[in-house]
Amino acid sequence: MDYMIGVDIGTTTTKSVLYDMKGKVVAYANSGYQLYQDAPDMAEEDPDDILHAVIEVMGQVMYKSKVKADEIKGVSFSSAMHSLILMDEADQPLTKAITWADNRAAKYSDELKDNGLGAKIYARTGTPIHPMAPLSKILWLRHEKPELFKKAKKFIDLKTYVFFKLFGVYRMDYSIASATGMFNIFDLKWNQGVLDLLQITEKQLPELVETTASISGIAPRFAELLNISTRTPFIFGASDGVLSNLGVDAIDPGVVAVTIGTSGAVRVTVDKPVVDPDGKLFCYALTKDKWVVGGPVNNGGIVFRWVKDQLFAPERITAEQMQVSTYDILTQIAEKIPAGSDGLLFHPYLGGERAPIWNAYARGSFFGLTRNHTRAHMVRAALEGIVYNLYVVMLTIEKVAGKPKSIQATGGFARSALWRQMLADIFEQPITIPESFESSCLGAAVLGMYALGYIDNLAAVKDMIGVTDVHKPNSDNFEVYRELLPIWIRISHLLEPEYKEIADFQRKHTK
Ligand code: ADP
């Protein structure tokens, strides 16, 4: 039989799934690694840890599945975005991999925003101006670590590093490139103006390839370790975000992918690159003809975790003793409260926020509290607030990508029927929860099947994903949300100018 391996290089774990050509999971493996956070705002990984994890998970799925080397028709990759590694003249890493979560370049992204250059760069690159982007990181290194900057022969990302180790070439796909802040999404080239600003040359960046491009001839020692053939093509693939859209079948116009895991995201696929006049959305490549527009949100399920740990500690202990999920107990409590939480509103900005407000100083708040509100109202308001915030991201997306028509939703939140229904009611859209497991791995595998001609169209993913739940918006509920949303949005604008002062106070006084 024919099989395909999908590999997803994540921030804390690399995963691999071996699929048959119908997208059925045959074997799965994952391997975690350390995130180095020795200094404030630092978040790095050792690139060799990632390489070892990639080898380990691929080796494991080969071992577990007992599939023969020549039955593997391809290996296709997904990767976290925005990582940066500096390589020296001898092709050795000069730095660890600086990840998206590293904020040390904040001063330089702030400068780009303030001097107006940022808006011009965003209009060509589709990457929001933020410390996460390699653009900001390279500026930071040039100013603050000039000795490293001067020694750098190449500026690459984690996936380019893995491919370099396996095949000896520096190549980056359009998708990962489109999240660097240095790539012109309209002409598919490195942007010369940005390179001039950074004082680097095109030769210092990887060669650009399509996401469907492949390479074979893996170094024999790795072929042996993995028990695969040196003839097996490796597809360069794309970033985890856009592949997750593919892996949940959100690739048609108007089909929105909403994720609420620890963090969250709203993303929709369009057929041409588009940018947002306010610079608040990303636009990243899936293929040359499919682009994913969206916004990443810091405050997803992590806020529900805070409610559980800080407001319901006794329930947590009881739940643990009864061996049930505290989240399930809390959603049962919230279910007794009517939609709209009797007018209690919650802004979920416990961890600053990226989309929709892009304000690192943002803080959370309850608004509208009365003596009648209970802890149960607070849980429901928190769950609603997380979804209101995602809905505001959707409103921004609508301006550049048109009205949504349905939602494919994923992430830990989907374990709660109440929360799923809330998403349908607040967005006023039918929502489907796909069964697909490890959607970025599936997206990578499907892209690989397409690249190698095993399927004619990416839409073949439709038959691979399965469905666990479907929810239709409930008109009684959405009428309430329609009334509350404008208030929620107005309050969030009113609070915006106040966030910095309270954040400064907290920084100054909190030990
Ligand atoms: P990650 O994004 O880190 O991969 P998940 O997708 O598993 O994580 O999402 C974790 C979040 O899912 C938790 O923070 C919590 O908010 C939410 N969650 C987990 N279990 C439940 C549950 N039973 N009901 C509702 N929400 C849940």
From TrEMBL:
It holds the Pfam family FGGY_N. Keywords: Kinase, Transferase. GO terms for molecular function: gluconokinase activity. Residues 3-247 form the Carbohydrate kinase FGGY N-terminal domain. One of its GO terms (biological process) is D-gluconate metabolic process. Gene3D superfamilies: 3.30.420.40. CDD domains: ASKHA_NBD_FGGY_GntK. Residues 257-452 form the Carbohydrate kinase FGGY C-terminal domain. Belongs to the FGGY kinase family. This is Gluconate kinase. The lineage of its organism: Bacteria, Bacillati, Bacillota, Bacilli, Lactobacillales.
